[in-house]
Amino acid sequence: MNEEERERTMNFILEQQAQVVAGMQKFGDGMQRLERTVVLMARQFRRERLDLRERIAALMDAQIKSEDKSAGWEDRLARIENITEHNSKSIRSLEELTRRNSEDIRALTNFVSRGGKQNGGADEG
User: Are 117 and 123 spatial neighbours (Cβ–Cβ below 8 Å)?
Assistant: First the structure.
């Protein structure tokens, strides 16, 4: 190999090394950008996970409060049902008393209209 060929070979090797170094530099820059992106994504993921946990905790609190209120309403409803049942019995009793009173008033009206005679005129005469 003569001097000129050796020089061309060395220039070729140097150019190849320069291209490898330039490629490595580009790769390093790309890796730095990728690292920054991964770090930003990890931070965003942590923020979203924290937000999700807070929302879940709020939902759980709301559910517990709702269940507590529901239990209170169930108790109130049971009391109202008992009162309604008692009132229904009272109304039925009042209706029965009213019916009997109506019968008594009719009988009394009939008695008075006959002039106070109970046997419908059998006592006359």
Answer: yes
